[in-house]
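To the wet lab folks,

You asked to see what we're planning to order before we commit. Fair enough. Below is the target structure as tokens, and below that is the sequence we designed to fit it. If anything looks off to you, flag it before the synthesis order goes out.
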């Protein structure tokens, strides 16, 4: 017999509740909707990673900023933080907090991309596509969390966070380099976390 949609959400919520508190996610992994969500968003994350890599190539080609180890000393002056994703590592994995951290990170990087847009005015289209994909990924995760009965945070459409200020054009360029490098690492962790859920 088909389970009504509300019943399914309650069932998934109960399963995830158990999973978050030490029980295996095996029951959830068999759910087709959840697997479909994971597959779709693994693809989405892969596409976003490709777009970030394309921007990194532009920064390398046009600004000659290609190697992170050559810029480490400048980085110390810039105070560019990495969005946390410690709840998405296997050792401490918790689905609810991992999803929340992915969404919070996407929100932070969505705003940070204004720095990239100012740096690469000729590539506004790519930056805007990336921002749109990030907003869609965040909203997909929010929808899935709501379907599972998990708490979500609503972020304002316009990012009110203050962007980093740079003391020179060179610092702005290096700042853009590290924003993209940090974002790429963030996406790799998020991708691994989603893939980890498909294998449970």
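Sequence we intend to order:
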């Amino acid at each position: 017999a088909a389970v009504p949609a509300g019943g399914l959400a309650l069932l998934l919520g109960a399963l995830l509740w158990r999973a978050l508190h030490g029980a295996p996610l095996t029951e959830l992994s068999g759910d087709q909707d959840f697997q479909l969500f994971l597959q779709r968003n693994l693809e989405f994350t892969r596409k976003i990673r490709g777009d970030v890599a394309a921007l990194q190539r532009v920064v390398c080609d046009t600004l000659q900023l290609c190697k992170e180890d050559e810029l480490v000393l400048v980085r110390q002056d810039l105070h560019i933080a990495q969005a946390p994703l410690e709840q998405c590592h296997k050792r401490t994995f918790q689905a609810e907090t991992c999803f929340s951290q992915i969404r919070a990170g996407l929100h932070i990087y969505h705003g940070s991309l204004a720095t990239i847009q100012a740096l690469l005015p000729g590539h506004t289209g790519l930056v805007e596509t990336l921002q749109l994909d990030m907003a869609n990924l965040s909203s997909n995760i929010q929808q899935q969390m709501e379907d599972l009965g998990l708490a979500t945070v609503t972020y304002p459409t316009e990012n009110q966070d203050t962007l980093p200020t740079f003391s020179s054009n060179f610092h702005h360029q290096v700042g853009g380099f590290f924003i993209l490098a940090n974002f790429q690492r963030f996406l790799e962790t998020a991708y691994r976390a989603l893939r980890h859920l498909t294998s449970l």
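Structural context that might help your review: DSSP finds seven helices and no strands in the chain. Confidence is low (pLDDT under 50) at residues 1-27.

Thanks,
Computational group
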